[in-house]
Amino acid sequence: MADVHNSATRSRNMAAIRGTNTKPEMLLRKGLHARGFRFRLHEKTLPGRPDLVLPKYRAVLLVNGCFWHGHDCYLFRWPATREEFWRRKIAGNVARDTANITALRAAGWRVSLIWECALKGKLRWPDEEVIDRVSLWLSSDDPVLELRGRDSAGNEGQG
Predict the structure, then answer these.
(1) What is the pTM of this model?
(2) Domain 21-147, architecture per CATH
(3) d(Cα 39, Cα 141) in Å, to the nearest integer?
(4) pLDDT in tens, 36-57
(5) Residue 66 — pLDDT band, cuts 50, 70, 90?
């Protein structure tokens, strides 16, 4: 199927997509800050520049878009045009994510991966529940937390 936009329009649309300060990221920041958590943003000295860094808890939060990070959920669909480019691009993102998480864990950081589908779309969790889960994780000793959207049966989407 051909793209519905011409090349210039598609380029403009893709360039407008944010990499930082996304709606899901802002929702988490606002909710955690309201609960008294203090954090740094996009710390350049850490692998992958995590979205939120909480040094007091030795924890980082990564808020990943399902499309850009190749999440296996209903929000992700392979583009029908330039398939080879997109497969290479997204596979590279996934490989980089894996390497960054491994490096963070090796450096002693606790890592939380929060997928876009947990915060948006038909299978999202209520915002307060996501903030509750992250807050509880921050106060625990668990090394990893992964939040994803609920499955179609309404079951927990936590990995």
Answers:
(1) 0.83
(2) 3-Layer(aba) Sandwich (3.40)
(3) 18
(4) 999 999 999 999 999 999 999 9
(5) very high
